[in-house]
Amino acid sequence: MAAAARGPLPAAGPDEADEAVRGTCEDASVCKRFAVSVGYWEDPYIQCFVRQAKERKAPEINRGYYARVHGVSYLLKAFLKKTECNCQIVNLGAGMDTLFWRLKDENLLPRKYFEVDFPMIVARKIHNIKSKPPLSKPIIESHSGDSLLIDSHSLDSSRYSIVGADLRFSSDLEEKLKKHNLDIHLPTLLIAECVLVYMTPQQSANLLKWAASTFPVAMFINYEQVNMTDRFGQIMIENLQRRQCNLAGVEVCRSLEAQRERLLLNGWENAHAIDMMKVYSFLPQADVKRIEELEFLDEKELFEQLMQHYCICWASKDSSNLGLADITF
Ligand SMILES: C[S@@+](CC[C@H](N)C(=O)[O-])C[C@H]1O[C@@H](n2cnc3c(N)ncnc32)[C@H](O)[C@@H]1O
Predict the structure, then answer these.
(1) Atom number of ligand 1 nearest to Cα 168
(2) CB–CB of 247/198 below 8 Å?
(3) pTM, whole model, 2 decimals?
(4) Which residues contact 178 (CB under 8 A, 6 or more apart)?
(5) 294 CB burial (10 A radius; 0-12, 13-18, 19+)
(6) Is 167 annotated in some ligand binding site?
(7) CA-closest candidate to residue 88, choices 107, 114, 65
(8) How far apart are CA 54 and CA 233, in angstroms?
(9) Among 3, 36, 79, 153, which residue has the fewest nearby CB atoms (within 10 Å)?
(10) Nearest residue to 64 (alpha-carbon basis) of 197, 194, 239
(11) With a 6 A CB cut-off, is 194 part of the ligand 1 pocket?
């Protein structure tokens, strides 16, 4: 994490602000692509969405992404196990995420996998899918029934749908997802990876409330910033503001307790929030040994600070007693 540059912070208008938020999609996929190229984890699909990063990413960033991908995947697989894949996943603000293809390779596809992002991001993702057989073939293979619907703004197959919508408007979101055969009675996992922080606390509360009141059996996984009121957090905020990117929801990212409380206040139960240093301490020792040998990490203190400023939060609702409340690291 670079130190903050000096000078006044420019203000962004609403369109510029949304454009800057959409730009974070690129940041996430470029960082994941770089970490994959160094060997942190395997993902043959990410290269279909992003060319190799021009600049190297620092080892602390790569390790952080490893813990993020591993942490989200650990909870997700626990959910798939509890539901025996008889479920659906809704990935909110999915960007260029490759989870659908990775789950298919592992024979772990849910009954249906949905992704939502801004229409412009969705159009970009669909363009890639249409032009790259390693992406389109698995969708065609997993599809059954009527013809697969794919145009420049949405994709609907029997196992995978991509929907263009603004998550700040949950009624519009529900209508669009239902057109793609969302089944509110199926156990549902909602994932938000670095997404809620770009909405105001009221908007993310509406989204969380909508999800909690719509799905009787569900789990929510949220990965994002935490402990943002200290000096390190302020530098992170300033660095993003310099790119016109405003963390509208940063107030909820003040502490682990605030993150947990938000889930409870908006209709979720069994809520947990842990920082990424803790997640790192839960990684299997063999994995830690392998990734720590990949690159020399000079800035141990910086790595620890970075990891203390991101967290994974999860919560569930379980009227069918599937045991979702037991899911933990
Ligand atoms: C930091 S990126 C993360 C992408 C992906 N979740 C990942 O981890 O690779 C944030 C994503 O959320 C999307 N996003 C943010 N606010 C949104 C909103 N209000 N409606 C739809 N998508 C949104 C952005 O377009 C972007 O793709």
Answers:
(1) 19
(2) yes
(3) 0.94
(4) none
(5) middle
(6) yes
(7) 114
(8) 27
(9) 3
(10) 194
(11) yes
For residue 73, count CB atoms less than 10 angstroms from its CB and return exposed for 0-12, middle for 13-18, buried for 19 or more: middle
Q: For position 12, what pLDDT does the model report?
A: 58
Distance from C-alpha of 182 to C-alpha of 322, rounded to nearest angstrom: 20
CA distances from 252 to 82, 216, 260, 268 (A): 30, 25, 10, 16
- In the predicted model, residues of the chain with pLDDT beneath 50 are 1-7
Q: Is the CB of 238 under 6 A from ligand 1?
A: no
State yes or no: 93 annotated in a binding site: yes
CB 45 within 8 A of CB 285: no
Question: Is residue 101 helix, strand or coil?
Answer: helix
247 is in an annotated binding site: no
Q: Which amino acid is at 261?
A: E
Instruction: Output the CA torsion sign for 134, 140, 141, 142.
Output: positive
Distance CA 124, CA 12 (A): 24
Residue type for 42, please? Answer: E
Q: Atom 24 (ligand 1): residue with closest C-alpha?
A: 22
Any atom of ligand 1 within 6 Å of the Cβ of 93: yes
* Residue nearest atom 4 in ligand 1 by C-alpha distance: 95
Any binding-site annotation on 262? no
What is the Å distance from ligand 1's center to 240 Cα?
A: 15
